[in-house]
C-alpha cells in the first residue's frame, strides 16, 4: 500500500506516481482510493482519461467493481493544459492510451509542484510495454505495481491474456475478452 510522505520544508513539491499492472489488478480502485483521501482533505484535483476509453460511462472513471469518480475526457495529452487551473493533484487513468506527449506534460506539471498520479496497463496483451508507460515508469518518483490473481492457477498475475481473436494493440474489453494470467500459465497458452 502506498502511503504518501509529504515534504515538510514548505516548498512547493511535485512528483509523479505510477500505479501499473495487468487488467483486473485493481489499478483504478487504487487510483480512486488515493483521490478520495485527497478529496476528503479538500485538496483540489483533476482526473483525466483519454477519449478512447468509453467503457461503462462517458464522464466517470469506473473500476470493474463499480467504484467511480468524475473524469474529464481529452483527445490529447496537451489538452490537459486547457483544464488545469493550478490544481495540486492531476490524475490520469488508462494512461497507456495517451499519446507520448503525456510524458512531457506529467513532468512539466510535477516540475510546477503538482502531484501527478498515473494509472494504467504496463504491458499490452502480447506482453510488450504499453505506449508511454515505460517512459512514465522511468521518471516517476513512486511506482506501485499491483497484481491480479491468475485465473488458471491462483498465484499473482501480471499478464492480460486476450481471449478474443483480435490482433490490434488497442481492443477494449472486460471479463469476456481478457483474463489475468501468471507467467507460467501465460507462456503455456502463448506457445
Ligand atoms: Zn498461473
Architecture blueprint of SSEs:
Layout: E1 15-21, H1 27-40, E2 45-50, E3 60-62, E4 68-70, E5 72-74, H2 80-83, E6 89-92, H3 101-111, E7 115-121, H4 133-139, E8 142-146, E9 148-149, E10 156-157, E11 159-162, E12 178-181, H5 183-190
Residues 150, 152-153, 155, 181-182, 184-185 line the site of zinc ion.
The CATH topology of the domain at 15-146 is given as Rossmann fold
Run of helices and strands: EHEEEEHEHEHEEEEEH
* Helix fraction bin: 10-25%
CATH-defined superfamily of the domain at 15-146: P-loop containing nucleotide triphosphate hydrolases
Number of helices: 5
Task: State the distance separating the first and last CA atoms.
Answer: 35 Å
> What is the CA-based Rg, rounded?
17 Å
- Highest CATH level, the class of the domain at 15-146: Alpha Beta
Bound molecules: zinc ion
What fraction of the residues are assigned to beta strands by DSSP?
25-35%
- Which runs of at least 5 residues are low in confidence (pLDDT < 50)? none
Specify the CATH architecture of the domain at 15-146.
Answer: 3-Layer(aba) Sandwich
Largest sheet: 6 strands, parallel
* Number of strand segments: 12
pLDDT average, as an integer? Answer: 90
- Structural class from helices and strands? alpha/beta
Strands side by side in the biggest sheet: 5-2-6-7-1-8
**Structural shape:** globular
How does this structure look, described?
With 191 residues, the protein is an alpha/beta fold. It has a domain at 15-146: Rossmann fold. Helix content is 23%, strand content 26%. It is built from five helices and twelve strands. The protein has helices at 27-40, 80-83, 101-111, 133-139, 183-190; strands at residues 15-21, 45-50, 60-62, 68-70, 72-74, 89-92, 115-121, 142-146, 148-149, 156-157, 159-162, 178-181. The strands form four sheets. It has a six-stranded parallel beta sheet with strand order 5-2-6-7-1-8, with helices on both faces. Strand 9 (148-149) and strand 10 (156-157) form a beta hairpin. The longest helix is centred in the first third of the chain and has 14 residues, at 27-40. Zinc ion binds at residues 150, 152-153, 155, 181-182, 184-185. The site of zinc ion (ZN) has 8 residues, from helix 5.
Amino acid at each position: 500500500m502506498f502511503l504518501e510522505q509529504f515534504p515538510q520544508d514548505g516548498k512547493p513539491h511535485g512528483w509523479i506516481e505510477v500505479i501499473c499492472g495487468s487488467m483486473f489488478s485493481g489499478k483504478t480502485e487504487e487510483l480512486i482510493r488515493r483521490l478520495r483521501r485527497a478529496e476528503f482533505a479538500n485538496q483540489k484535483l483533476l482526473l483525466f482519461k483519454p477519449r478512447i476509453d468509453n467503457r461503462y460511462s462517458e464522464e466517470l472513471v469506473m473500476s470493474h467493481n463499480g467504484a467511480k469518480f468524475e473524469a474529464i475526457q481529452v483527445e490529447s495529452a496537451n489538452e490537459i493544459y486547457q483544464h488545469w487551473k493550478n490544481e495540486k493533484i492531476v490524475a490520469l487513468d488508462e494512461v497507456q492510451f495517451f499519446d507520448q506527449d503525456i510524458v512531457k506534460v506529467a513532468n512539466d506539471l510535477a516540475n510546477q509542484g503538482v502531484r501527478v498520479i498515473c494509472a494504467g496497463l504496463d504491458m499490452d496483451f502480447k506482453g510488450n510495454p504499453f505506449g508511454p508507460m515505460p517512459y512514465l515508469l522511468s521518471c516517476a518518483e513512486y511506482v506501485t505495481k499491483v497484481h491480479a490473481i491468475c485465473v488458471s492457477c491462483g498465484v499473482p498475475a501480471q499478464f492480460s491474456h486476450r481471449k478474443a481473436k483480435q490482433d490490434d494493440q488497442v481492443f477494449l474489453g472486460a471479463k469476456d475478452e481478457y483474463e489475468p494470467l501468471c507467467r507460467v500459465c501465460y507462456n503455456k497458452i502463448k506457445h
